[in-house]
Amino acid sequence: VAVASRGKPENLTKKGQFKYNRELARKAGEKGRETQRRKRLITEYIIKLLEKKIEIKKGRKKETRTGAEHLVAVLYDKALKGDMQAIKEIIDRVEGKPLQKTEAEIVGNNVKIEITGVDADKKD
Fold first, then answer.
1. Is the dihedral of CA 67, 72, 75, 77 positive or negative?
2. Is the dihedral of CA 29, 35, 36, 41 positive or negative?
3. Residues with Cβ < 8 Å from 63, sequence gap 6 or more?
């Protein structure tokens, strides 16, 4: 008789190992593929919208831009008005986000953690 500390007895083999359920694994794989497919479709739809030409009214003038161009213009206008989040976003896009490297080393009972690429004095 098989004995286990967890799980259902009907899922145990005589050696006490859980049976590999191919059906559940297959269903899990299908769910993952469906999720990836949905994400890909959403991404493609967003890209199409960003490439689409739109008409923008500025006073009496009408301007034609892509959705992406309009988003960049709005972000730029916010940055010029002093919006720190917009300024940070532009800098991160142009210059790239700063690298952050974390290393951990365990020797016996001692733990050594080293973080580089981050200003330790900076408060968020």
1. negative
2. positive
3. 55, 56, 57
Tokens 């007895």 identify what position? 9
pTM of the entire predicted model: 0.49
Q: Can you tell me which residue has the tokens 């479709």?
A: 41
Q: Are 62 and 55 in contact (CB under 8 A)?
A: yes
Q: Which long-range contacts (CB under 8 A, 24 or more apart) does 64-72 make?
A: none
Integer angstrom CA distances of residue 115 from 63, 79, 103, 105, 107:
48, 31, 6, 12, 18
Q: Is the pLDDT of residue 80 over 50?
A: yes
2 Cβ contact list (under 8 Å, min separation 6): 9, 12, 13, 14, 15, 16
pLDDT greater at residue 110 or residue 3: 110
Residue 116 has pLDDT above 60, yes or no: yes
